[in-house]
Amino acid sequence: MDCILIRHGIAIEPDEWEGAEENRPLTEKGKKRVKQAAVGIAALDCKPTHLFTSPFVRAYDTARILRTVVCPVLKVETREELAVGAKPEQLVALLNTLPSDSVVICVGHEPQLGEVVSLLLCGKVLPSFPFKKSGAACIEAEGIIKPNQARLRWWLPPLQLRVLGKRTRTEKQDESS
């Protein structure tokens, strides 16, 4: 299984938002950056079989943008296992219900995403793996996902994803010229 963990894009700051926290949306810049990062993820040629997201608006909107660019045939599925406050073990349990050859995109929040990576790579929850907004990591595991048994395939901050996407677009333009 490959699990691609992605943090939601830049959202309106909490002190600038009067609504409920779960309804805080992406900014226009956040939407643009997510789309650019999604092009970078698409360049990595992953073939997602599932697209899960936190039910919070900023994560759901990030997942919708990813779906458009990376995996248009998939349905965006909201999962409480990715909501703010969810325990890393909850997401691991969800992943273990899927076929072992799945490629899963999970859109969520910090610190939960970093805690999931820590649990899978190190066997315990540590604050050592922070995700930037629109940043992503791919964790791979064989068979059932167990703490301390997974491997890090790649970890890309949003700037690197944007550069990768831009480079790929440029190469495609050069090929068609």
Number of domains: 1
Helix percentage: 25-40%
Share of residues in strands? 15-25%
First and last CA, distance = 38 Å
Q: Which sheet architecture does the biggest sheet show?
A: 6 strands, mixed
Beta strand count: 6
Level-2 CATH architecture: 3-Layer(aba) Sandwich
Fourth CATH level, the homologous superfamily: Phosphoglycerate mutase-like
Secondary-structure class: alpha/beta
Radius of gyration: 16 Å
How would you portray this structure in words?
The protein is an alpha/beta fold and 177 residues long. It has a single domain, classed as Rossmann fold, CATH 3.40.50.1240. It contains 5 helices and 6 strands; from the N terminus they run E-H-E-H-E-H-E-H-E-E-H. It has a 6-stranded mixed sheet with strand order 3-2-4-1-5-6, sandwiched between helices. Helix 2 links the parallel strand 2 and strand 3. The longest helix has 19 residues. It is globular and about 45 Å long.
Short account of what is shown:
This protein is of the alpha/beta class. It has five helices and six strands. It has helices at 28-43, 57-70, 88-95, 112-122, 158-176; strands at residues 2-7, 50-53, 76-78, 103-108, 136-140, 151-156.
